[in-house]
Specification:
Elements lengths: L2 E7 L3 E8 L4 E8 L10 H14 L3 H4 L2 E8 L4 E4 L21 H7 L12 H11 L8 E4 H10 L4 E3 L17 H7 L9 E3 L4 E4 L2 H7 L6 E7 H9 L6 E6 L3 E7 L11 E5 L2 E8 L3 H7 L2 H8 L40 H25 L7 E5 L6 H11 L3 E2 L6 H12 L3
Parallel strand pairs: 1-4, 4-10, 7-8, 11-15, 15-16
Antiparallel strand pairs: 1-2, 2-3, 5-6, 9-10, 11-12, 12-14, 13-14
Helix pairs in contact: 8-13, 11-12
Amino acid sequence: MNLYLGIDFGTTGARSTIIDSQGTIHCETEHTFANNGQQQPELPSVWQNALWAVIEQIPPAIRNQVRAIALDGTSSTVMLCNTDGIPVCEPILYNDARGAAVTERLRAIAPANHTVLSATSSLAKLLWWQEGGHGGTAPTVFLHQADWLAFLLHGKLGISDYHNALKLGFDVDTLCYPNWLIEGIAGTATPQLPQVVAPGTPVGEVRAQVGDRFGFPRDCMICAGTTDSIAAFLASGVNLPGEAVTSLGSTLAVKLLSHTRVDDSRYGIYSHKLGDLWLVGGASNTGGAVLRHFLTDAELDNYSTQIDPEQESLLDYYPLLKKGDRFPINDPNLPPRLEPRPTDSVEFLHGLLESIARIEARGYQLLQELGATPLTKVYTAGGGAKNSVWSAIRKRYLKVPVETPIHTAAAYGSALLAKHGTLI
């Protein structure tokens, strides 16, 4: 039997899913990061241990039938390595905004409204390293989390995919690094940029020592990966322009499959290339983390059943845990709006759910106003997908069908990418 392994590196741990040619799941494993994967010097060791742990848990009889492997990692989690692939300094996580210190240089390099014009972009982090001389004087290689983890499996240093490389400034129209980027980072401490290929592209066979350790076939192929959010989108099975996936996790992320590309940093909107189509979207800081700040899971379940989803709440919130949002309002100083707070917790939850639904609807409306394919259907991933009352409220605002896909796990999406790689 031919099996395909997808490995997902999220914010708190790693997960694996193995599927067959029909997409049937044969095995799933997971491993939680030590110290929840927060910023620490030992992060590469934490990730490497997690990679071996999720593989180790797969039964040997399944491992020896794996034909291909693909990984996803958190977008804009980056690292500097020496030419042997050994990290030379602490990685910088996806949500780390230290790049704000190089904003002026970033704006001088990049075109107006470009995706990289963010304190958390991969390019901002590269410039921050350059300014501080953190790579030292020896040659270094700039990698994303998924790039380095795949290197551990195939041994070919310096290969990325154009999903991870988007926020580094890679041009997915021309499939090359633009001149403004090459010239803008040129200097004494310039790391080698990764070679960029299409997600799912076969990169190389599994390293002999890794194959021997885990019992993978000698010709097991390691494929170029993707980001965790795109892997979750792939898992949903959406393939028609106009269909979208909203991820209702700790935050709110929307991705719409579109014939046309939309990029506008003023609103936190960017597009990933997906075959001949574009995955247009953005991510807001509102979402489940705000709900859990005020209510327990049991209270959320209990109070939700007491809400009439067809009755509009008169409360108008912008639910954030701290100031600042990215999309559909891109303003680092945007204040949370959570007043007035009624004494009735059911009424308060109704206001929160309805306000987040309004932000989601405004996001999709904005994508379409800027030229994306009109919205026809929304699939929901993340913990919020389980709340049927919230789904009904969202449907009222979105004015299109709202459904839950069969598969939502990012590891499943990466497994599909591995399967796709064997067909290239």
